[in-house]
Amino acid sequence: MDGTKAILMVVTSYGRIDTEHSTGLWFEEFSVPYELFNQEGYVVTVASVKGGAAPLDPRSLPASREASAVRAALEALQHTQRLMEVDITEYDAVFFPGGHGTMFDFPHNHEVAELVRRYLVEGKVVAALCHGPAALVGAADGADPSVLGGRRVTAFTNQEERAVQLDGLMPFLLESRLRELGAQVQTAPQWQDHVVVDGNLVTGQNPQSSTSAAQAVVRLLSA
What we know:
Layout: E1 6-11, E2 16-18, E3 21-22, H1 27-39, E4 43-48, H2 64-67, H3 71-76, E5 81-82, E6 93-96, H4 102-105, H5 110-122, E7 125-129, H6 134-140, E8 152-153, H7 158-163, H8 174-180, E9 184-185, E10 195-198, E11 201-204, H9 210-222
Parallel strand pairs: 1-4, 1-6, 4-5, 6-7, 7-11, 8-9
Antiparallel strand pairs: 2-3, 10-11
């Protein structure tokens, strides 16, 4: 690639919690950063754990009257690259949008873990939003504690998980697991826009933080 900044956006491929609960990517957490990154002129590649069409949490789908405004983002999610086939050396940053699906596939995916570890060490930007910091869990589990030890982060909080009544269906509570792995988790009251930047690591708490998280990435890439 030329001198244009390039961002890899990695989304979940996990679409169902159980027979009664569909899940997947939370669309706003992808579409808002995707649009902003394209407006900045970045080269944006969309990948997922399995490749192909990414599952969208049905609760996050845009209303029909709004769909035309986000058509490009919707289209990009129909043809994601398989993460293991992506040359991660070509990118300046990685962005992990959330959605409850990430809680099931990100922590157990080798490519996600290695991508996070490598970029953090190399000083490239690592950004994760809402449940997207589940990618950090996989990178820290069984690894050198310096991956998360002492680093300041935020994520979808235990309080927010209980508020949406999905805490009992998750394999773990994200805020609690990040603390267990040594991270300094900084939270705001539920549903407030809240972003934490620690060096080259950007984390956002919830969907309301989508714009601010993306803007933080832009600032780091512009520095």
